[in-house]
Amino acid sequence: MPNADRPRGARAVRHLDGSPYNGATNKYAVDVSNATAIFPGDFVIREDDGNVAPYTGTSGGNVLGVCASVQADPDNLSRRYLAATTAGTVLIADAPDLIFEIQEDDVDGSALTAAAAGANCDVLATAGSTTTGQSAHEIDRSTILAANGQLRLLRIVEREDNDYGDAAAWEVAINEHTYKSVAGTGTEA
Predict the structure, then answer these.
(1) What is the DSSP-derived secondary structure letter of residue 180?
(2) Is 80 exceeded by the pLDDT of residue 106?
């Protein structure tokens, strides 16, 4: 059975040492200058002013973590994401050793294989759904083996409804993380 092509961003699943992810996050501010909506599951970066913004594919810089949720707004209790040019607070899973589950893109028709494990890649930062509030960030498989990709592919997610092929779910670590040195360069992020 083919994998379902349902981009939903990244989701923290465990720590690198195998210990379970307990839902821990840190609060970060988003200011009104942020021109892109932030959805749970989006990779985010830290801006020079200390605020965060979603990784957009052209934002540059190291990845801080993944948006786990948007803090509730008492004036809008149904808010599922933080709209562009809206100040707010987001909760970020930002531990440098977190492992995330994320789907590979289904763009070019050449799915990843077991040989991709251990390779680096970038994030394909597509806008999320304002209807469902879900992220659409995926693994950008066209960047596999990028010298310093944002993500490191660890393994395919072992689940009955997931197999090698288009839109497979993978476990990844943030390779270019704000709070650790950049892999292979010896410099601090």
Answers:
(1) S
(2) no
Contacts with 178 (C-beta within 8 Å, 6 or more apart), sequence order: 45, 46, 61, 62, 63, 64, 65, 94, 189
69-77 mean pLDDT: 88
Residue 106 Cα distances to 7, 20, 143, angstroms = 10, 29, 13
Query: Tokens standing for 113?
Result: 């294989």
Show Cβ contacts of residue 173 under 8 Å, excluding neighbours closer than 6 positions.
16, 97, 98, 99, 100, 151, 152, 154
Measure Cα distances from 103 to 11, 95, 164 in Å: 10, 21, 11
Reported pTM = 0.89
Contact 9, 41 (CB under 8 A): yes
The token pair at 160 is 């009955």
Give the DSSP letter string of 77-129: TT--SB-TT--EEEEEE--TTEEEEEEBP-SSS----GGGTT-EEEEE-----
- Distance from CA of residue 55 to its chain's centroid? 8
Handedness of CA 5, 6, 10, 16 (dihedral sign): negative
Quote the Cα angle for 111-130-6, to 5°: 20
Please compute the mean of the pLDDT values over residues 80-97 and round it to a whole number.
96
